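So, can you check this record?

>
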Amino acid sequence: MIYESTRGISEQTHSADIILQGIADDGGLFVPKSLPKLDRHDLEDMLDMDYSQRAKKILALFLTDYAAEEIELCVARAYDSNKFSSRHVAPIYSLSDNIKLLELWHGPTCAFKDMALQILPHLMSIAIQKKAIKEDIVILVATSGDTGKAALEGFKDVKGTHILVFYPKEGVSLIQERQMNTQEGENVYVVGIEGNFDDAQAGVKAIFADADFNRIMKNSGYRLSSANSINWGRLVPQLIYYISSYLDMIEHGDLNWEESFDVVVPTGNFGNILAAYYTKKMGIPIDRLICASNRNNILTDFISTGTYDSNREFFKTASPSMDILISSNLERLLYELVDRNPAKLSKLMLDLKERGVFKLTKDQLKVLKKDFWSGYADDNETLNTIRAIYDEYNYVLDPHTAVAMKVLLDYRKQIDDNKKTLVISTASPYKFIEDVLKAIGDEDSLDSLDDFEMLYKLSSIAGTDIPDPLRDLKDKKILHTTDVSKKDMDNVLVNIFNLDGVNLCRLQVHR
Protein backbone atom coordinates (compact mmCIF):
# COMPACT_ATOMS: atom_id res chain seq x y z
CA MET A 1 0.00 0.00 0.00
CA ILE A 2 1.21 3.48 -0.92
CA TYR A 3 0.69 6.52 1.31
CA GLU A 4 0.58 10.18 0.32
CA SER A 5 0.55 13.48 2.19
CA THR A 6 -2.61 15.57 2.38
CA ARG A 7 -0.49 18.59 1.36
CA GLY A 8 0.78 16.84 -1.80
CA ILE A 9 4.47 17.82 -1.63
CA SER A 10 6.13 15.01 0.31
CA GLU A 11 7.01 11.90 -1.63
CA GLN A 12 4.63 8.95 -1.61
CA THR A 13 5.96 6.10 0.51
CA HIS A 14 5.17 2.94 2.52
CA SER A 15 3.87 2.26 6.01
CA ALA A 16 7.18 1.68 7.82
CA ASP A 17 8.42 5.09 6.66
CA ILE A 18 5.31 7.00 7.69
CA ILE A 19 5.06 5.27 11.07
CA LEU A 20 8.61 6.39 11.82
CA GLN A 21 8.05 9.89 10.50
CA GLY A 22 4.63 10.62 12.00
CA ILE A 23 3.93 13.86 10.15
CA ALA A 24 4.91 14.57 6.53
CA ASP A 25 7.78 16.96 5.76
CA ASP A 26 5.32 19.31 4.08
CA GLY A 27 3.27 19.54 7.28
CA GLY A 28 0.50 17.28 6.00
CA LEU A 29 -0.84 13.99 7.31
CA PHE A 30 -0.24 10.68 5.60
CA VAL A 31 -3.23 8.81 4.15
CA PRO A 32 -3.54 5.68 1.98
CA LYS A 33 -3.78 6.42 -1.74
CA SER A 34 -6.85 4.18 -1.67
CA LEU A 35 -8.65 2.25 1.05
CA PRO A 36 -9.02 -1.52 0.80
CA LYS A 37 -12.54 -2.91 0.48
CA LEU A 38 -14.10 -5.61 2.65
CA ASP A 39 -16.81 -7.69 1.02
CA ARG A 40 -19.16 -10.19 2.63
CA HIS A 41 -16.73 -13.05 2.05
CA ASP A 42 -13.88 -11.17 3.79
CA LEU A 43 -16.08 -10.43 6.78
CA GLU A 44 -17.43 -13.97 7.06
CA ASP A 45 -13.86 -15.27 7.11
CA MET A 46 -13.20 -13.18 10.24
CA LEU A 47 -16.47 -13.97 12.00
CA ASP A 48 -15.17 -16.81 14.18
CA MET A 49 -11.84 -15.12 14.93
CA ASP A 50 -10.89 -13.47 18.22
CA TYR A 51 -9.74 -9.85 18.42
CA SER A 52 -6.06 -10.58 17.85
CA GLN A 53 -6.72 -12.76 14.83
CA ARG A 54 -8.90 -10.07 13.29
CA ALA A 55 -6.24 -7.47 14.07
CA LYS A 56 -3.65 -9.41 12.08
CA LYS A 57 -5.97 -9.66 9.08
CA ILE A 58 -6.87 -5.97 9.08
CA LEU A 59 -3.36 -4.66 9.71
CA ALA A 60 -2.03 -6.80 6.85
CA LEU A 61 -4.25 -4.79 4.47
CA PHE A 62 -2.50 -1.54 5.41
CA LEU A 63 1.02 -2.57 6.45
CA THR A 64 1.93 -4.33 3.23
CA ASP A 65 5.67 -3.80 3.74
CA TYR A 66 5.55 -5.69 7.06
CA ALA A 67 5.97 -9.46 6.94
CA ALA A 68 3.14 -11.60 8.34
CA GLU A 69 5.34 -12.76 11.21
CA GLU A 70 6.21 -9.13 12.06
CA ILE A 71 2.55 -8.18 12.30
CA GLU A 72 1.84 -11.30 14.34
CA LEU A 73 4.61 -10.38 16.79
CA CYS A 74 3.28 -6.83 17.21
CA VAL A 75 -0.28 -8.04 17.82
CA ALA A 76 0.85 -10.68 20.31
CA ARG A 77 2.80 -8.12 22.32
CA ALA A 78 0.00 -5.55 22.26
CA TYR A 79 -3.17 -7.47 23.06
CA ASP A 80 -2.11 -10.21 25.47
CA SER A 81 -4.08 -11.09 28.58
CA ASN A 82 -1.52 -9.49 30.89
CA LYS A 83 -2.39 -6.06 29.48
CA PHE A 84 -6.15 -6.26 28.92
CA SER A 85 -8.48 -7.26 31.72
CA SER A 86 -11.13 -8.54 29.29
CA ARG A 87 -10.39 -11.59 27.19
CA HIS A 88 -12.42 -9.92 24.43
CA VAL A 89 -10.03 -6.89 24.53
CA ALA A 90 -12.88 -4.60 23.37
CA PRO A 91 -16.11 -6.11 24.76
CA ILE A 92 -19.61 -4.89 23.92
CA TYR A 93 -22.04 -4.18 26.75
CA SER A 94 -25.71 -4.38 25.80
CA LEU A 95 -27.41 -1.42 27.46
CA SER A 96 -30.67 -2.10 25.61
CA ASP A 97 -31.89 -3.83 22.47
CA ASN A 98 -30.75 -0.98 20.26
CA ILE A 99 -27.96 0.69 22.28
CA LYS A 100 -24.66 -1.14 22.61
CA LEU A 101 -21.59 0.20 24.41
CA LEU A 102 -18.19 -0.63 22.96
CA GLU A 103 -15.95 -0.62 26.05
CA LEU A 104 -12.48 0.43 24.95
CA TRP A 105 -11.02 0.93 28.42
CA HIS A 106 -9.94 -2.53 29.58
CA GLY A 107 -6.25 -1.88 28.81
CA PRO A 108 -3.41 -0.90 31.16
CA THR A 109 -4.35 2.80 31.39
CA CYS A 110 -8.15 2.37 31.45
CA ALA A 111 -8.78 4.47 28.33
CA PHE A 112 -9.38 3.84 24.64
CA LYS A 113 -5.94 5.15 23.67
CA ASP A 114 -4.53 1.77 24.79
CA MET A 115 -6.15 0.14 21.76
CA ALA A 116 -3.62 1.84 19.49
CA LEU A 117 -0.78 2.81 21.80
CA GLN A 118 -0.11 -0.74 22.98
CA ILE A 119 0.78 -1.72 19.41
CA LEU A 120 2.34 1.44 17.94
CA PRO A 121 5.67 1.09 19.81
CA HIS A 122 6.13 -2.41 18.40
CA LEU A 123 5.22 -1.30 14.88
CA MET A 124 7.76 1.49 15.27
CA SER A 125 10.45 -0.79 16.71
CA ILE A 126 10.19 -3.11 13.74
CA ALA A 127 10.22 -0.14 11.36
CA ILE A 128 13.48 1.03 12.97
CA GLN A 129 15.00 -2.36 12.21
CA LYS A 130 13.59 -2.55 8.69
CA LYS A 131 14.93 0.88 7.78
CA ALA A 132 18.24 0.43 9.61
CA ILE A 133 17.72 3.68 11.49
CA LYS A 134 20.85 4.67 13.40
CA GLU A 135 19.36 7.52 15.47
CA ASP A 136 17.23 7.00 18.56
CA ILE A 137 13.59 7.88 17.97
CA VAL A 138 12.23 10.64 20.21
CA ILE A 139 8.46 10.49 20.52
CA LEU A 140 6.85 13.87 21.19
CA VAL A 141 3.30 13.79 22.53
CA ALA A 142 0.81 16.51 23.38
CA THR A 143 -2.01 15.11 25.49
CA SER A 144 -5.34 16.22 26.86
CA GLY A 145 -5.08 13.38 29.37
CA ASP A 146 -5.39 9.82 28.19
CA THR A 147 -2.99 9.74 25.22
CA GLY A 148 -0.08 10.72 27.45
CA LYS A 149 -0.33 7.85 29.90
CA ALA A 150 -1.15 5.32 27.18
CA ALA A 151 1.86 6.42 25.12
CA LEU A 152 4.16 6.37 28.16
CA GLU A 153 3.01 2.89 29.08
CA GLY A 154 3.40 1.66 25.51
CA PHE A 155 6.87 3.09 24.88
CA LYS A 156 8.48 2.61 28.29
CA ASP A 157 11.85 0.89 27.93
CA VAL A 158 11.29 0.12 24.23
CA LYS A 159 14.79 -0.12 22.78
CA GLY A 160 15.88 2.74 20.54
CA THR A 161 13.11 5.12 21.67
CA HIS A 162 12.54 7.97 24.11
CA ILE A 163 9.17 9.53 24.86
CA LEU A 164 8.40 13.06 26.04
CA VAL A 165 4.82 13.96 26.98
CA PHE A 166 3.53 17.51 27.38
CA TYR A 167 0.20 17.98 29.17
CA PRO A 168 -1.79 21.07 30.27
CA LYS A 169 -1.01 21.43 33.97
CA GLU A 170 -4.51 22.55 34.93
CA GLY A 171 -6.33 20.69 32.16
CA VAL A 172 -6.36 17.02 33.23
CA SER A 173 -7.96 15.12 36.07
CA LEU A 174 -5.93 14.33 39.20
CA ILE A 175 -6.06 10.64 38.32
CA GLN A 176 -4.78 11.32 34.80
CA GLU A 177 -1.96 13.52 36.12
CA ARG A 178 -0.93 10.99 38.76
CA GLN A 179 -0.90 8.23 36.14
CA MET A 180 1.57 10.22 34.07
CA ASN A 181 3.74 11.63 36.86
CA THR A 182 4.32 8.22 38.43
CA GLN A 183 5.29 6.60 35.13
CA GLU A 184 8.34 4.38 35.40
CA GLY A 185 10.83 3.77 32.59
CA GLU A 186 14.36 4.85 31.78
CA ASN A 187 13.30 6.51 28.52
CA VAL A 188 10.22 8.47 29.62
CA TYR A 189 9.75 12.18 30.42
CA VAL A 190 6.61 14.06 31.50
CA VAL A 191 6.26 17.84 31.50
CA GLY A 192 3.31 20.02 32.49
CA ILE A 193 2.78 23.27 30.61
CA GLU A 194 1.04 26.47 31.63
CA GLY A 195 -1.73 26.48 29.04
CA ASN A 196 -4.37 24.24 27.50
CA PHE A 197 -4.15 21.23 25.21
CA ASP A 198 -4.18 23.36 22.07
CA ASP A 199 -1.12 25.19 23.41
CA ALA A 200 0.66 21.88 24.00
CA GLN A 201 -0.31 20.60 20.56
CA ALA A 202 0.78 23.83 18.85
CA GLY A 203 4.14 23.67 20.64
CA VAL A 204 4.76 20.09 19.52
CA LYS A 205 3.81 20.95 15.94
CA ALA A 206 6.17 23.94 16.00
CA ILE A 207 9.05 21.71 17.10
CA PHE A 208 8.32 19.27 14.29
CA ALA A 209 8.18 22.12 11.78
CA ASP A 210 11.51 23.67 12.86
CA ALA A 211 13.95 22.33 10.25
CA ASP A 212 17.02 23.71 12.01
CA PHE A 213 16.03 22.20 15.32
CA ASN A 214 15.36 18.83 13.68
CA ARG A 215 18.77 18.97 11.97
CA ILE A 216 20.47 19.59 15.31
CA MET A 217 18.52 16.70 16.85
CA LYS A 218 19.68 14.41 14.06
CA ASN A 219 23.30 15.55 14.37
CA SER A 220 23.04 14.68 18.07
CA GLY A 221 21.79 11.17 17.28
CA TYR A 222 18.02 11.63 17.59
CA ARG A 223 15.05 11.66 15.23
CA LEU A 224 11.65 13.11 16.13
CA SER A 225 8.42 11.21 15.68
CA SER A 226 4.89 11.34 17.04
CA ALA A 227 2.52 9.06 18.92
CA ASN A 228 -0.47 11.37 18.56
CA SER A 229 -3.17 10.25 16.17
CA ILE A 230 -1.58 12.32 13.41
CA ASN A 231 0.68 9.24 13.11
CA TRP A 232 -0.99 6.70 10.83
CA GLY A 233 0.42 3.94 13.04
CA ARG A 234 -1.80 5.31 15.82
CA LEU A 235 -4.87 5.57 13.63
CA VAL A 236 -4.87 2.27 11.77
CA PRO A 237 -5.25 0.10 14.92
CA GLN A 238 -8.44 2.03 15.67
CA LEU A 239 -10.04 0.66 12.52
CA ILE A 240 -9.71 -2.80 14.03
CA TYR A 241 -12.19 -2.31 16.86
CA TYR A 242 -14.90 -0.91 14.59
CA ILE A 243 -14.64 -3.87 12.22
CA SER A 244 -14.35 -6.35 15.09
CA SER A 245 -17.33 -4.88 16.96
CA TYR A 246 -19.47 -5.13 13.84
CA LEU A 247 -18.56 -8.81 13.55
CA ASP A 248 -19.32 -9.31 17.26
CA MET A 249 -22.78 -7.79 16.81
CA ILE A 250 -23.41 -10.11 13.86
CA GLU A 251 -22.14 -13.10 15.83
CA HIS A 252 -24.30 -12.24 18.88
CA GLY A 253 -27.43 -11.74 16.77
CA ASP A 254 -27.62 -8.00 17.46
CA LEU A 255 -27.41 -7.30 13.71
CA ASN A 256 -27.96 -9.23 10.52
CA TRP A 257 -25.82 -8.93 7.40
CA GLU A 258 -28.35 -6.69 5.65
CA GLU A 259 -28.69 -4.29 8.60
CA SER A 260 -26.90 -0.97 9.05
CA PHE A 261 -26.18 0.74 12.36
CA ASP A 262 -25.24 4.16 13.72
CA VAL A 263 -22.08 4.99 15.64
CA VAL A 264 -21.77 7.79 18.21
CA VAL A 265 -18.29 8.91 19.28
CA PRO A 266 -17.25 11.42 21.98
CA THR A 267 -14.88 13.50 19.92
CA GLY A 268 -12.04 15.93 20.52
CA ASN A 269 -9.11 15.41 18.16
CA PHE A 270 -11.31 13.59 15.60
CA GLY A 271 -9.15 10.46 15.23
CA ASN A 272 -11.62 8.04 16.82
CA ILE A 273 -14.59 9.02 14.67
CA LEU A 274 -12.35 9.28 11.60
CA ALA A 275 -11.45 5.60 12.06
CA ALA A 276 -15.17 4.78 11.98
CA TYR A 277 -15.53 6.87 8.80
CA TYR A 278 -12.72 4.94 7.12
CA THR A 279 -14.28 1.58 8.00
CA LYS A 280 -17.54 2.79 6.51
CA LYS A 281 -15.71 3.56 3.28
CA MET A 282 -14.18 0.08 3.45
CA GLY A 283 -17.60 -1.58 3.52
CA ILE A 284 -18.80 -1.72 7.15
CA PRO A 285 -22.52 -0.76 6.99
CA ILE A 286 -22.36 2.27 9.29
CA ASP A 287 -25.19 4.65 8.49
CA ARG A 288 -24.79 7.84 10.50
CA LEU A 289 -21.59 8.92 12.26
CA ILE A 290 -22.73 10.96 15.27
CA CYS A 291 -20.06 13.36 16.50
CA ALA A 292 -20.52 14.20 20.20
CA SER A 293 -18.79 17.25 21.70
CA ASN A 294 -18.74 18.91 25.08
CA ARG A 295 -19.03 22.67 25.66
CA ASN A 296 -15.99 23.13 23.40
CA ASN A 297 -18.37 22.41 20.56
CA ILE A 298 -16.33 23.56 17.58
CA LEU A 299 -16.93 20.29 15.73
CA THR A 300 -20.67 20.52 16.35
CA ASP A 301 -20.73 23.95 14.75
CA PHE A 302 -18.52 22.81 11.88
CA ILE A 303 -20.67 19.83 10.96
CA SER A 304 -23.82 21.93 11.28
CA THR A 305 -22.64 24.98 9.32
CA GLY A 306 -19.50 24.06 7.39
CA THR A 307 -17.55 26.81 9.17
CA TYR A 308 -14.67 25.86 11.45
CA ASP A 309 -13.95 28.83 13.71
CA SER A 310 -11.36 28.42 16.45
CA ASN A 311 -11.68 32.07 17.52
CA ARG A 312 -13.75 31.25 20.56
CA GLU A 313 -13.51 30.86 24.30
CA PHE A 314 -11.88 27.69 25.59
CA PHE A 315 -13.68 25.88 28.42
CA LYS A 316 -12.41 23.39 30.97
CA THR A 317 -15.05 20.72 31.34
CA ALA A 318 -15.90 17.48 33.12
CA SER A 319 -14.74 15.64 29.97
CA PRO A 320 -11.19 17.04 29.70
CA SER A 321 -9.94 14.68 27.00
CA MET A 322 -12.32 16.48 24.64
CA ASP A 323 -11.26 20.01 25.62
CA ILE A 324 -9.78 20.77 22.20
CA LEU A 325 -10.32 23.56 19.68
CA ILE A 326 -7.89 22.44 16.95
CA SER A 327 -8.80 18.90 15.86
CA SER A 328 -5.69 17.66 14.06
CA ASN A 329 -7.23 14.61 12.42
CA LEU A 330 -9.94 16.67 10.79
CA GLU A 331 -7.40 17.37 8.04
CA ARG A 332 -7.72 13.80 6.82
CA LEU A 333 -11.49 14.14 6.47
CA LEU A 334 -11.12 17.50 4.76
CA TYR A 335 -8.81 15.84 2.24
CA GLU A 336 -11.71 13.60 1.23
CA LEU A 337 -14.18 16.49 1.16
CA VAL A 338 -11.98 18.44 -1.31
CA ASP A 339 -11.72 15.33 -3.53
CA ARG A 340 -8.11 14.73 -2.44
CA ASN A 341 -6.96 18.00 -3.94
CA PRO A 342 -3.82 19.08 -2.00
CA ALA A 343 -4.04 22.70 -3.16
CA LYS A 344 -7.60 23.09 -1.87
CA LEU A 345 -6.71 21.35 1.38
CA SER A 346 -3.64 23.53 1.89
CA LYS A 347 -5.78 26.64 1.38
CA LEU A 348 -8.14 25.55 4.17
CA MET A 349 -5.22 24.84 6.50
CA LEU A 350 -3.62 28.19 5.70
CA ASP A 351 -6.91 29.95 6.48
CA LEU A 352 -7.03 28.14 9.82
CA LYS A 353 -3.43 29.05 10.63
CA GLU A 354 -3.68 32.71 9.64
CA ARG A 355 -7.27 33.58 10.53
CA GLY A 356 -8.34 30.75 12.84
CA VAL A 357 -11.24 29.90 10.56
CA PHE A 358 -12.09 28.16 7.30
CA LYS A 359 -15.33 27.42 5.49
CA LEU A 360 -16.56 24.58 3.29
CA THR A 361 -18.47 25.14 0.08
CA LYS A 362 -22.17 24.26 0.00
CA ASP A 363 -21.44 21.10 -1.98
CA GLN A 364 -18.73 20.03 0.48
CA LEU A 365 -21.05 20.64 3.44
CA LYS A 366 -23.74 18.55 1.76
CA VAL A 367 -21.32 15.64 1.41
CA LEU A 368 -20.24 16.04 5.05
CA LYS A 369 -23.81 15.99 6.33
CA LYS A 370 -24.60 12.85 4.37
CA ASP A 371 -22.35 10.89 6.73
CA PHE A 372 -22.15 12.99 9.90
CA TRP A 373 -24.51 14.46 12.48
CA SER A 374 -23.34 16.46 15.46
CA GLY A 375 -24.44 17.59 18.89
CA TYR A 376 -23.00 18.55 22.26
CA ALA A 377 -23.64 18.37 25.99
CA ASP A 378 -22.62 20.83 28.69
CA ASP A 379 -21.40 19.67 32.10
CA ASN A 380 -24.84 19.71 33.76
CA GLU A 381 -26.29 17.61 30.94
CA THR A 382 -23.31 15.28 31.15
CA LEU A 383 -23.70 14.63 34.88
CA ASN A 384 -27.47 14.31 34.56
CA THR A 385 -26.95 11.68 31.88
CA ILE A 386 -24.58 9.72 34.10
CA ARG A 387 -27.27 9.73 36.80
CA ALA A 388 -30.10 8.83 34.43
CA ILE A 389 -28.26 5.88 32.90
CA TYR A 390 -27.21 4.66 36.33
CA ASP A 391 -30.78 4.89 37.66
CA GLU A 392 -32.30 3.11 34.67
CA TYR A 393 -29.65 0.52 33.83
CA ASN A 394 -27.39 0.32 36.91
CA TYR A 395 -24.45 1.12 34.62
CA VAL A 396 -21.89 3.85 35.32
CA LEU A 397 -20.68 6.00 32.44
CA ASP A 398 -17.60 8.15 32.47
CA PRO A 399 -18.19 11.82 31.49
CA HIS A 400 -16.93 11.39 27.91
CA THR A 401 -19.20 8.44 27.24
CA ALA A 402 -22.03 10.34 28.93
CA VAL A 403 -21.56 13.16 26.42
CA ALA A 404 -21.96 10.60 23.64
CA MET A 405 -25.08 9.16 25.26
CA LYS A 406 -26.70 12.57 25.71
CA VAL A 407 -26.01 13.48 22.08
CA LEU A 408 -27.45 10.15 20.93
CA LEU A 409 -30.65 10.79 22.89
CA ASP A 410 -30.86 14.28 21.37
CA TYR A 411 -30.32 12.83 17.91
CA ARG A 412 -33.18 10.38 18.35
CA LYS A 413 -35.49 13.19 19.45
CA GLN A 414 -34.65 15.30 16.41
CA ILE A 415 -34.22 12.61 13.75
CA ASP A 416 -36.59 9.74 13.03
CA ASP A 417 -33.85 7.16 13.41
CA ASN A 418 -34.06 4.46 16.06
CA LYS A 419 -31.74 1.91 14.48
CA LYS A 420 -29.15 -0.10 16.39
CA THR A 421 -26.42 2.18 17.69
CA LEU A 422 -22.90 1.53 18.88
CA VAL A 423 -21.82 4.06 21.51
CA ILE A 424 -18.06 4.32 21.88
CA SER A 425 -17.19 4.17 25.58
CA THR A 426 -13.75 5.72 25.84
CA ALA A 427 -12.73 5.60 29.51
CA SER A 428 -13.39 3.91 32.81
CA PRO A 429 -15.60 5.99 35.13
CA TYR A 430 -12.92 5.53 37.78
CA LYS A 431 -10.61 7.89 35.87
CA PHE A 432 -12.99 10.82 36.42
CA ILE A 433 -14.05 9.88 39.86
CA GLU A 434 -15.19 13.17 41.40
CA ASP A 435 -17.64 14.12 38.66
CA VAL A 436 -19.00 10.58 38.43
CA LEU A 437 -19.65 10.51 42.18
CA LYS A 438 -21.25 13.94 42.02
CA ALA A 439 -23.66 12.46 39.52
CA ILE A 440 -24.60 9.23 41.26
CA GLY A 441 -23.57 9.69 44.94
CA ASP A 442 -24.03 12.05 47.82
CA GLU A 443 -22.15 15.18 46.77
CA ASP A 444 -21.97 16.58 50.31
CA SER A 445 -20.11 13.51 51.55
CA LEU A 446 -17.30 14.02 49.01
CA ASP A 447 -15.80 17.07 50.72
CA SER A 448 -13.76 15.00 53.16
CA LEU A 449 -12.47 12.52 50.53
CA ASP A 450 -9.53 12.79 48.16
CA ASP A 451 -9.71 11.35 44.65
CA PHE A 452 -8.18 8.07 45.71
CA GLU A 453 -10.61 7.53 48.59
CA MET A 454 -13.38 8.28 46.10
CA LEU A 455 -12.32 5.24 44.07
CA TYR A 456 -13.40 2.99 46.92
CA LYS A 457 -16.61 4.94 47.44
CA LEU A 458 -17.62 4.45 43.79
CA SER A 459 -16.74 0.78 44.01
CA SER A 460 -19.03 0.46 47.03
CA ILE A 461 -21.92 2.37 45.44
CA ALA A 462 -21.76 0.82 41.99
CA GLY A 463 -20.74 -2.67 43.05
CA THR A 464 -17.88 -2.77 40.54
CA ASP A 465 -14.18 -3.37 41.03
CA ILE A 466 -11.59 -0.60 40.92
CA PRO A 467 -9.41 -1.28 37.85
CA ASP A 468 -6.05 -2.72 38.88
CA PRO A 469 -4.00 0.07 37.22
CA LEU A 470 -5.77 2.67 39.42
CA ARG A 471 -6.09 0.77 42.69
CA ASP A 472 -2.60 1.48 44.05
CA LEU A 473 -1.97 4.76 42.23
CA LYS A 474 -2.00 6.88 45.40
CA ASP A 475 0.99 5.08 46.86
CA LYS A 476 3.17 5.27 43.75
CA LYS A 477 6.17 7.58 43.86
CA ILE A 478 5.90 10.78 41.82
CA LEU A 479 8.84 10.74 39.39
CA HIS A 480 8.14 13.72 37.12
CA THR A 481 7.68 17.24 38.47
CA THR A 482 8.76 19.57 35.66
CA ASP A 483 6.44 22.43 34.67
CA VAL A 484 7.28 25.00 31.97
CA SER A 485 5.64 27.81 30.08
CA LYS A 486 4.34 26.99 26.62
CA LYS A 487 7.17 29.08 25.17
CA ASP A 488 9.83 26.85 26.75
CA MET A 489 8.80 23.46 25.39
CA ASP A 490 11.79 23.23 23.04
CA ASN A 491 14.13 24.07 25.95
CA VAL A 492 13.08 20.79 27.54
CA LEU A 493 14.51 18.81 24.64
CA VAL A 494 17.72 20.85 24.75
CA ASN A 495 18.24 19.87 28.37
CA ILE A 496 17.16 16.24 28.21
CA PHE A 497 19.17 15.36 25.12
CA ASN A 498 22.13 17.70 25.69
CA LEU A 499 21.74 19.34 22.31
CA ASP A 500 24.60 21.44 21.02
CA GLY A 501 24.19 24.43 18.72
CA VAL A 502 20.81 25.55 20.04
CA ASN A 503 20.65 29.13 21.26
CA LEU A 504 18.14 28.51 24.02
CA CYS A 505 18.08 29.10 27.76
CA ARG A 506 18.48 25.73 29.46
CA LEU A 507 16.22 24.70 32.31
CA GLN A 508 16.44 22.11 35.03
CA VAL A 509 14.42 18.98 34.38
CA HIS A 510 13.46 17.11 37.54
CA ARG A 511 13.30 13.34 37.26
Observations:
- The domain at 92-110+235-430 is CATH 3.40.50.1100 (Rossmann fold).
- The first strand starts at residue 3 and ends at 5.
- Residues 504-511 have pLDDT under 50 and may be disordered.
